[in-house]
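Notes to self after the Tuesday call (sharing in case useful).
The group wants a holo model before anyone commits to mutagenesis around the pocket. I volunteered. Ligand is S-adenosylmethionine. Logging inputs and output together so the record is complete.
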Amino acid sequence: MHDTIGMTAHLARQAARAGWYYGISRLLARQTQSARTSAAAADFKPQRPVPKFQDLLTDLGKLILEDAKAVRDGRYPSMPEAGDDFGRHVSRVRGMIADVPVAMARKNSKDTGSVRTAHPTDLAGLPDYYTQDFHFQTGGYLSADSARLYDVQVETLFMGAGGPMRRRALSAIVDAVRGRDQRRLQMLDVACGTGRFLRQVRLTFPRLGLTGMDLSTAYLAEAQAGFRDLTGAAWLEANAERIPLGDASQDIVTCIFLFHELPPEVRRQVAKELARVLKPGGRLVFMDSLQIGDKLGWDGLLEAFPVRFHEPYFRSYAIDDLDSVFRQAGLVPIETTTPFLAKLMVCRKV
Ligand SMILES: C[S@@+](CC[C@H](N)C(=O)[O-])C[C@H]1O[C@@H](n2cnc3c(N)ncnc32)[C@H](O)[C@@H]1O
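Result:
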């Protein structure tokens, strides 16, 4: 049965979210402008074409409509984006805005190369590429503050589309689970971060065996806190280069917004690990940023992104041949789509 009322309510909520996050992004842009003392970002002009704002909005509208239709068709329920109440949300937005001058000062003092906060934490055992301040965020992935602010930062960057884009990956999981007993299936989310995607999966599949894995203690703690009102999941603090799970132990593996943060050779090692833990015939549901050439007239955005944010491996990611990376690991791409600013690939383990 079609849930048209549910669809309309979902549509209205998502449109309001997009407007809200767009407003925050304008506020942040003003703050960034006034905090800037010297930065290559100020003068940077991409060589490749940049989409008009209208084109971005049209594509965002398509994504939101597709999301709402999936709710109408009962593929997944309409869901809150996070367990946050409004007061907490506002405090996080304020925290993000307050971090801008600190982050910009660090960026301006070191516009190229790696950027790191002097971490009080023990970095032993963490790979060197990982301990940088990704996105110029104070503490990189290592502090509780960064974990607290991550989701509002992502949603601000994507104009509220983080949730709807991840639900395109959720839709691929709905296809993979269809006709099977979810209680007998295991799904691993590699680099689960603050667990927002796992929440979406749990709200759709209350009995699916779920494991969230990440290298950040702080992000895993945030993910677990977000599961307080839900049936639990297993949590693993580990490096995706060496997943501490058995060969062929998973029916579904997901990996969302990790690869653009990895050096090229590490991407290949992680792809092998994703394949190793999957059962033959199992599905990899992979999502990350768009790559160069994916959307006509949008490549300039991908050039500008690593200039504005500290993303040391984004340029190499944007031109990497993911199809061949996955095939060489034993994963055959069966579907590739580009919802808004993301690229979604579904692969079958040979
Ligand atoms: C951009 S966030 C994406 C988080 C989440 N998947 C999402 O959709 O928001 C990247 C995540 O990858 C994790 N990460 C980065 N390198 C990793 C590695 N080698 N092993 C495990 N996790 C890693 C970080 O701690 C962070 O939580």
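Two things stood out.
The first strand starts at residue 186 and ends at 190.
The longest helix spans residues 4-35.
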